[in-house]
Structures are given as C-alpha cells and as structure tokens.
Write a structure and sequence with these properties.
With 321 residues, the chain is α+β, with helices and mostly antiparallel strands. The chain folds into 2 domains: 196 residues, Endonuclease III, domain 1, CATH 1.10.340; 103 residues, Nucleoside Triphosphate Pyrophosphohydrolase (Alpha-Beta Complex), CATH 3.90.79.10. Helix content is 42%, strand content 13%. Strands 1, 2, 3, 4, 5, 6 and 7 form a 7-stranded mixed β-sheet that branches. Strand 1 and strand 2 form a beta hairpin. The chain is globular, with a radius of gyration of 23 Å. The N and C termini lie far apart (64 Å). The model has no long low-confidence stretch (mean pLDDT 95).
C-alpha cells in the first residue's frame, strides 16, 4: 500500500478528529488556527482559538479590532508578530472583499509562509497542495532517510484524493507518534518502510542542530506604583514583545521608595532574558509621558503584557510583594 494510503487509513482510525477547528470549510477559522499553530502545540492553542472566535467570529470583526485588543487576547501565546500580522492581514482581506482560494494568494498575506498557505487551502478549499512544517519534515526525513530538500518528496507523495485526510494524518503522525524524542514506532503505520527505524537512526534524522549556549541579556524593570496603579510603557511595534506593554527600563522619577523584587528568567529562541524588577512607590502620581500609561494593577495583569510582566503584576495584585 502506498505511503499516502497508509496515512489516510491510519488517520481515519487513530487521528485527531475533534479539534475545534476541524469539520469546517470556513477559511477564516482555518486561517486563524493555522497561524496559531505555527511553532505552538495544539493543547496551548485550543483555549486561545476559542477565545478569539468568541470575540472575533469573523474576519470583519477582527479587522475592526485595535492592535492592543488583539495582543491582549494573544498575550501568553508567544511569537507576538503572529498576532500583529493577523490583524494586518484581516484588514487587507476586508479591503479586498474576499479570501484568496489559492496557496499563492494566501502566501501573499502578512505572516503566511508556504506550508501554512498550503494547509489553509487544503482544509478550506480542498486544494491539492503539499505541506512541510516541522512535524512533517521529521516524518519524511525519518521515513525516507534523507535530510535533503524535502519539498519535491512532499509534493510527489500527495494522493489524488482525500488530500485533507492525508494532510491531517501527516500532522497527527508527527505530533502524536513520530515525536522528536522517543518516537512510538510500534504505533506507526509506515514503520515497515521507515529507513531511520531500520537503520536505528531515529535520533539522527532529521539531523539535530548544534545546540549553542544561549547568550544572557539583562534588563532592569522599574515598577512604579501609586494608588493601586502601575506605570506601563508600550514597546515599539517591531522587535522584542512588539506592541505589548511592559515596565519602563529606565529610571523616570526621583524620590520614590525603592525595593528589589526577585529576578525573573525568560527564554527566547536566540537568548535568555534575566529581568530585575525594582519596585518604586511614589507619594504622588507623576504625569504620563508619551507611550506610557497608569493602569490599575488588575487591569494591567489582564492586558496585553508579556508573561513575565504578568507574573510581577499578579504578585502585586495578590499582595505578595
């Protein structure tokens, strides 16, 4: 039985069929799920996806949102450029008046790469397109014993029919069975033809990237408080935590009663951040500078802030500091 037919049969028996974005041809819902699933696990995506749909049930509703509102919902999901690009793309789609139904048209939208565009047209429009995300690369690399350019292989393996089931099967196999560590080869529908399994090379394919020690960056956060409110500063749209609200990283006011808080460590793809919060209680509230605002601590903790900033805010809210 060909590779594709084995995957289709396996997916129908063992694959995921109850995810909240399955069973729909609505391109908005498919697009939203595929963007959220970029570099993020399914279990983490589900609650965010459901909250987004509850607040923005259509592309028109999303296009009418502000960046701050979108990032507030996105907060904690990581890779925040995805949220900003989602909003930009929604505005483009509304101005066009239609959702493109080809991979080429969708890949022209902000934040959409080749594999994501292919997945969207497969699930929303039934197009015959190949995907090649990280999970699929691992499946094909191990099964066929190669680390070379896998796009030609991915295209060659596409079945003529049942492309949606096949594509979901590839995703499910990489996520549930052909995992990065300790793959469940006994449960794999293509184990009999898997080169990596036969040659005992599952830990070598795909070739692991050389792990470099992540450089450490350090920052000081000035946590200004007055009357139950905290001063936040909005970061530039581009760069780290673009568009989110954080604590100022430069001293602003004199005469505050200062105390140190425990440092926080946070890992990014290319570096580690160690932030040292300094708590400063002001006797009177000072004027806001451009790009800054005084916000109630509870409201700030629910707002568009990065996860480590939220950790500090929740400690303040609970009275732990």
């Amino acid at each position: 039985m060909p590779f594709s037919q084995k995957l289709i049969a396996w997916q129908r028996r063992h694959g995921r069929r109850d995810l909240p974005w399955q069973g729909t041809r609505d391109p908005y819902r498919v697009w939203l799920s595929e963007v959220m699933l970029q570099q993020t696990q399914v279990t983490a995506v589900i609650p965010y996806y459901e909250r987004f749909l509850n607040k923005y049930p259509s592309v028109d509703a999303l296009a009418a949102a502000s960046e701050d509102e979108v990032l507030c919902l996105w907060s904690g999901l990581g890779y925040y450029a995805r949220g900003r690009n989602l909003l930009r793309a929604a505005k483009e789609l509304v101005s066009r008046g239609r959702f493109p139904d080809t991979a080429e048209g969708i890949s022209a939208l902000p934040g959409i790469g080749r594999s994501t565009a292919a997945a969207i047209v497969v699930f929303a429009f039934g197009r015959r397109e190949a995907i090649l995300d990280g999970n699929v690369k691992r499946v094909l690399s191990r099964c066929y014993g190669t680390d070379d350019d896998l796009w030609p292989l991915a295209e060659r393996l596409l079945p003529r029919r049942n492309v949606e089931t096949y594509t979901q099967g590839l995703m499910d196999l990489g996520s549930l069975v052909c995992t990065r560590g300790r793959p469940k080869c006994d449960a794999c529908p293509v184990a009999d033809q898997c080169v990596a399994r036969k040659q005992n090379r599952t830990d070598q394919l795909p070739a692991p990237r050389a792990r470099k020690a992540l450089p450490l960056r350090q920052a000081t956060w000035f946590v200004y408080l007055h009357g139950g409110k905290v001063l936040l500063e909005r970061r530039p749209s581009r760069g780290l935590w673009g568009g989110l609200w954080t604590f100022p990283e430069a001293p602003l006011f004199k005469g505050a009663k200062a105390s140190g808080l425990p440092p926080l460590d946070h890992s990014f793809t290319h570096f580690r951040l160690r932030a040292q919060p300094i708590l400063l209680r002001l006797s009177k509230r000072r004027p806001e500078a451009p790009g800054m605002r005084w916000t109630g601590i509870a409201d700030a903790a629910r707002g568009a802030v990065p996860a480590p900033v939220r950790t500090v805010l929740r400690s303040l809210e609970s009275g732990q500091v």
